[in-house]
Amino acid sequence: MELKIVDIKEFKKNIYPEYKKIFPEIERKSYRCLKKTYKNNIMKIIEILVDDELVGFFILNLLKGNSYIQLDYFAILPEYQHRGYGTQAIKILKNMYQQYDGIFIEIEKLNCGENEEENRIRQRRAKFYENLGFYKLDFDLDMYTVIYSAYILPCQKNEFIGSEVIKEIYKIYKAILGEKRTEKNCKVLNI
After folding, report:
1. Cα gap 160→40, rounded to integer Å
2. What is the pLDDT of residues 91-109, one digit of tens each?
3. Full-model pTM
4. Quick one: 136 exposed, middle or buried, by C-beta within 10 A (0-12, 13-18, 19+)?
5. Quick check: 125 and 184 in contact, CB under 8 A?
6. Confidence of residue 118 (pLDDT cuts 50, 70, 90)
7. How many degrees, rounded to 5, is the angle at CA 184 between CA 71 and CA 145?
């Protein structure tokens, strides 16, 4: 397996069509927004390759000087799922970014889905990340009226203070969305 950082042109050609198929419209950012984030040196796009075949991708957000990376999107293409590629890719990603304190993700809050099937999917997703060493932080996020639980995968540190992590993650949000949109649409809960 190889993780390969690609530019926005390769993203548009190889990954964006898959991104649109995998993520529901409500969860996707527009190509324009993604391109702007890339051009502003915030976003990294990584292809997950097996024998030079695209099997998945990561979209990361990071700022120079931050101790934390945000794993914004991660997917293994449906035809390659259940082969251990996701587990292997996360482990390689952690090694690639071991100079950071941790990798931050948001997972839709458990048991808050619209139906039992959605709750089961959320539970499986959380279990997947927890089995890889991610653990839940002491706060949730209300982002555009969807409640997310905050998780982190330690790269260097093993103990995290939620207020420190969210302060750096909010820097990323503000760099992407702008300060006003972040303040209006992103709220920290339970800290």
Report:
1. 28
2. 999 999 999 999 999 998 8
3. 0.91
4. middle
5. no
6. confident
7. 65
Q: Is the pLDDT score of 191 beyond 60?
A: no
CATH number at residue 173: 3.40.630.30
How many other C-beta atoms lie within 10 A of the C-beta of residue 104? 26
DSSP 8-state symbol, 29: P
Residue 157: Cβ within 10 Å count = 15
Whole-number Cα distances in Å, 169 to 7, 40, 166: 23, 16, 5
- Facing residues of 34 across strands? none
Residue whose pair of structure tokens reads 């809960």 in the numeric block? 189
- Do the Cβ atoms of 68 and 169 come closer than 8 Å? yes
Q: How far apart are alpha carbons 64 and 86 in whole angstroms?
A: 27
Q: Which domain holds residue 119?
A: 2-189
pLDDT tens digits, one per residue of 128-150? 999 999 999 999 999 888 899 99
In one-letter notation, the amino acid at residue 190 is N
- Residues 122-135: b if buried by 16+ CB within 10 A, e if exposed: beeebeebeebbbe
Quote the number of domains for the chain. 1
